[in-house]
Structure formats: C-alpha cells, structure tokens
Specification:
547 residues, alpha+beta, 6 strands, 59% helix, 7% strand
C-alpha cells in the first residue's frame, strides 16, 4: 500500500509529537494486519479483474461470463438475482444462463453485483456484526450509484456504482481486521465531539477515505474510481463541471443515502432526508419525489442482493434484517418462479449417429438428471434458450460472439455438457480453431482445440463433409473410437458422450459446435430436443451470414 501518502497524513492528525508517533504506530499495525490477511490478495486480484472489464471491449461479456461461471456459488447467486421479480422478463421465463443474465440485467449491473458478492463472501464470515452492517451499507450504496448512473448523460457513468460500492471500504477493512479500533472511532463520532474524518485521523492516523484509496490502488483499481472516494467540500454542492467530479458527488451521496434507506418510512428521519436533499439536490438534479422513488426502488433491490449473499444467513438467523428487507423477502418467496434449473453441469454410420433417432421422452421433473448429467427437462431448457437467443437477435444490440456464447451456455445447461466450444475456420493457417469456449478447464481446452482434416475419415471430417449433426452416446465403443482423431483422444481422453454440429452454408465449411460429457448418454436425444438444437445452430448461422 502507499505508506508514504498514509504517513503524510500524520501531520493532519491534529495531535502533538507523541500523539503523532502513537497514531503512526497504530496505523502501521493496522496496515500490517490488513496486508497479512490471507484472503485479501486473492480478493484484490478478483476485484481488479472484474473492474477492469471495459464495457466497450468486444470480449467483455465473454470475459465476465467466464469469470462468473468459474465460481459455482457466484453463478448461482447471479442467476437467482436475475430471476427475482425485479428483473423477471414479461414472459416470466426463468433465466438459466449467465449470458442471458448479463443481457437482461446489463453488463455493468452484473459487474457491480459480482463485485458486491465477492466482498460479502470474503468478508462476511467474521463474527463482528459491524462488518456485516458495513457490507449491507456498501450493497445499498452501489444500488443508489447505479440509479444515479441511469439518470446521467456522462460517458461510462456506470463506474459510479462501483465507486459507491467502495466508498466505505476503508471502514469495512478496519472493522474486519481490527474491530476494537473501529469501535473506538464509532464511539468518538457518537459522542458528538468528532466528525467521522476527525475521529478516524485521531485513532488511525489517517482518514478512512485515505485508507480506502491506498487499498484500491494496491489492487490496481482505475484512478477514476479511486479519485471518486475523495472527500467533498462541505455545504451545498453545485452541479459538477465534469465526469470525475460528478462521480465523486455520486459516491458520497450514495453512501449517505444508503444509511437512510433502511429507515426510510421513519418520520424521525425526515430532517436527515431533507438535509441530504439540500446538500445534493441541485448538484444531482434531485427533488423530494425523485428521492422517495429512488429510495423505494433501491430498498427492494438491495434486499435482493443481501438475501442472495452470505449476509442472509446472519441477518435471518439473528432477526436483524431491516423490516423492509424482511417484508420483501416474504413477497419474493410468494411471487418468484420455481428454483432456477440446476446449472451445469459414412452414410450408414452417420445415420446411426444422427440426433433425431430417439423416441420422445416423458414429461420430466425440474432439476432431476440422467446418470449422464443431462437434465430430464432438457426440452424446456432448450426452448428457453431458443427464445433467449431470439430475443437477443431482435434487440438490435446483438454481437455474434455474445450470441454464440449464449448458445454454448444453453447447450451446457440444458444438455448437461461439461465443456462446449465453437470452432471457426482459421483461413491463414488452414485449420479449425476454438474461438469461444465454456465449461471445465475451458482456457486450456480452447488452446488445444485446433485441428485440420487429414487423409482418411474421422468423425469430424464425416460430419462436416455431410453437414450432419451427430450425437455420440458412447465414445468408447470400438466403432466410434476408431473414428476419433488423435488430437481429440489426446485433448479429451475422458470424453464419453458428445455432439458435433457443423456450421456449413452452401457447402462452405465455417466451423462447428462441439460439446461433451465425461459420462455415456444412452438416453440419446429425442426428436423435439433435436429440433431445438438445430434451431439454435440455425440462429448462429443466420448471425454469421449477416456479417
């Protein structure tokens, strides 16, 4: 961390020489505790990865989806948020893929939610109730920041939600790593003799904001977000002259608003709300009605985040969740759809392997799976995927890479595949190469999934030359194994069942979809499921042809 900058704060601590030395020692011990925390470097690395995913990057959706999918718990939480009443689509269909969640909620909303969940999951397990209070405050502040970003015309305004999330991270880290110091600061503030800044400088030797800046810089968080944590001048604020000043105003406003939202129906807080509006109203174009509507909206959404995080078990167990959250939890339990489906998990020969040879299956129970891992309700999940892809294509904001990622995720979720990729022809190298991949060990497998057709026949060559969609239910049978190319046996030696879906237009071989499982799949693929898989492939071909 930036010790020089923190030590420079000694001169501003307002104590004599002995006091300066004392607070310097306190501050240095605190920094040592924070730096020695085993989980903090990993947390910082994860936070930095998410924050640095630029919305303008063509790979942003793919990068964020891969990050979320690499953490099963985080995947489940993001999907639960996407399936709450606040975000549910008009059709009421469940969101079963992270790609769809990003499309539905928006990249920045999912980024902020993922960051919030990372902070909560890594820090909420401490026994200090104050840590959980600060975490809930951070969650709520991030929602206020997001609402303000929606109203703004500034470029990349969504960064304000991230700045708001981190506004109290200095307080949060002190509460987590030295609760006695945190309580000492709190007592000084409660006594009325010190402002929060004065109290933190007297006890810690630096302000909470300066500590937060130091931590975030050590995590390589963009300077625009770090700058937004700086303290504002006192008094009524004027409209910002630029984006950075606006973000600074929003971050401070969001944290102050978050403190009032749990008691927003309490008449005793009327003076505090009026004071907040007087200070920030002109600068942020807020009036009483806008503030009340924002409070109501944020109260609902912050409760959703809190309920779907590690905080829920603590607040529910202790009966300490604010009344609005408790009421909202009960309402959602009544209104929400059923639980999200479990996330994942020659001519004669070709005729044997075609996808449409199995009789239709019986209606299946949601969540149940075949021994292969394929969900019994695969047809319903595939149909949802087709509708999701259709909606994405009709939105006018559809990128082909995002579309293919959604199709891959749909195949994994609905068919129980552990790994899926789309390969496209690399013309300069005259070979097929994996371009987008999801599932287990996706990065290593994507790097190795490169091939070209050799002399003789192999399964992939037969599929491409005949434009035949294949389902291999047991890759260990002698007939199938003899047709597997060497590169496939070496890269995926434990693949027991898989599909190959060629992407061919007017005999031009564009590439193929591939997905596999580590278990055989004797249940096969019924005709209705086959039709839906072919529809997914057709949607991708339509998108590729439009390029």
């Amino acid at each position: 961390m930036e010790l020089k900058k923190l030590r420079a704060a000694e001169a501003e601590a307002g104590t004599g020489g002995g006091g300066v030395q004392s607070t310097a020692n306190v501050r240095d011990r605190l920094l040592q505790k924070i730096n020695a925390a085993a989980d903090l470097p990993a947390l910082g690395s994860s936070v930095a990865r998410v924050v640095q995913m630029a919305s303008s990057d063509d790979e942003a959706v793919s990068n964020l989806a891969h990050f979320i999918l690499s953490d099963v718990a985080l995947t489940q939480k993001i999907l639960r948020i996407a399936n709450t009443v606040s975000y549910r689509t008009a059709s009421g269909r469940q969101v079963t893929t992270v790609s769809k969640a990003i499309f539905l909620l928006g990249l920045e909303t999912v980024k902020t939610a993922a960051l919030a969940m990372l902070l909560v999951d890594r820090l909420a397990k401490t026994h200090a109730q104050s840590v959980r209070n600060e975490l809930l405050l951070a969650l709520t502040a991030s929602m206020v920041g997001r609402e303000m970003a929606r109203r703004s015309q500034h470029k990349d305004a969504e960064e304000a939600a991230i700045a708001a999330l981190f506004k109290n991270i200095g307080r949060l880290l002190v509460a987590a790593h030295d609760h006695q110091l945190y309580q000492k600061v709190a007592r000084l503030v409660e006594s009325g003799t010190h402002t929060p800044a004065q109290a933190s400088k007297e006890v810690l030797g630096c302000s909470f904001d300066l500590l937060a800046e130091s931590v975030l810089r050590s995590w390589n968080i963009p300077e625009s977000i770090v700058h937004a944590l700086a303290a504002l001048p006192s008094g009524v604020l004027k409209p910002a002259k630029g984006r950075l000043e606006w973000m600074q105003q929003v971050a401070t406003f969001s944290l102050n608003a978050a403190k009032l939202i749990p008691g927003m129906s309490d008449p005793a807080q009327a003076d505090a709300r009026n004071a907040l509006l007087m200070r920030f109203g002109t600068a942020l174009n807020l009036d009483h009605d806008k503030l009340e509507r924002m409070f109501a909206s944020v109260s609902e959404e912050s409760c959703v985040l809190a309920r779907d995080s590690e905080l829920a078990q603590y607040f529910d167990a202790a009966g300490e969740m604010a009344a609005p959250c408790a009421e909202r939890s009960a309402a959602v339990a009544r209104e929400s759809p059923a639980a999200v489906a479990k996330a994942p998990e020659q001519a004669g020969l070709l005729n044997e392997l075609l996808l449409d040879l199995v009789e239709d299956s019986e209606p299946a129970q949601v969540g149940a799976c075949h021994p292969s891992g394929k969900p019994l309700n695969a047809r319903d999940l595939l149909l949802d995927g087709v509708l999701d892809v259709t909606q994405m294509m009709a939105s006018g904001n559809c990128k082909v890479n995002d579309l293919m990622l959604l199709v891959l995720e749909t195949l994994c979720t609905s068919m129980g595949f552990r790994f899926a990729t789309v390969c496209l022809m690399d013309k300069p190298a005259n070979r097929f190469r994996a371009r987008i991949t999801v599932g287990e060990n996706y990065a290593a497998r994507e790097a190795g999934f490169v091939f070209q057709f050799a002399n003789g026949n192999d399964l992939f060559k037969l599929a491409m030359e005949n434009n035949a969609d294949l389902m291999i239910s047991d890759a260990t049978t002698p007939k199938i194994r003899s047709l597997l190319p060497t590169w496939h046996r070496e890269l995926l030696p434990d693949a027991r069942s898989f599909i190959v879906l060629p992407l061919v237009v007017q005999k031009k071989q564009l590439g193929l979809f591939y997905a596999d499982r580590a278990q055989p799949a004797p249940e096969g693929v019924p005709a209705d499921e086959t039709a839906l898989i072919k529809t997914l492939k057709g949607q991708v071909l339509t998108a590729l042809n439009s390029l």
